[in-house]
Amino acid sequence: MRKAIAVLLVMMVYAGFAFAVEKVKDIRFIAHKNVTVLDTKTNLMWAAKDNGKDINWEDAQSYCENYRGGGYTDWRMPTQDELAGLFDSSIIGNDDYHLTPLITLTGSCLWALETRRNAGAYFHFRYGTRHLTHQSNNINGRALPVRNNK
Fold first, then answer.
1. Mean of pLDDT values over 40-68
2. Domain map of the chain by residue range?
3. What's the pTM?
4. Do 101 and 93 contact (CB within 8 A), yes or no?
5. Could you tell me which CATH number the domain at 2-148 has?
């Protein structure tokens, strides 16, 4: 039954019906006006889509901190643990990215807050793995802002 509801929800989102309603829910996530997505398990609010193009670590951090989705001003770059919490290997689709279809990714790798020397951390949503790469690398890196929902 849960899978049937999830499949129906995915079909509605991709068909455009989600844009006509204020809230769309799946088992764990609630999308608000296609701008933010609330994770009811962690109480984190996510941007409904990433920045949409290749970006390096420093620009990703700036993008997250300056994001104003939903009228909020306290957005930030997520940690690897927070990104890993979105990963769900049971979800297949979403361009082979394993996370709720309520969040749109245009690339498989999302930058994370952690750094080591000149390396920035990222999380790979196709494989569910954590990595480090030079902060100036912008190949397939994306930014997905997050905030603590109060």
1. 98
2. 2-148
3. 0.83
4. yes
5. 3.10.100.10
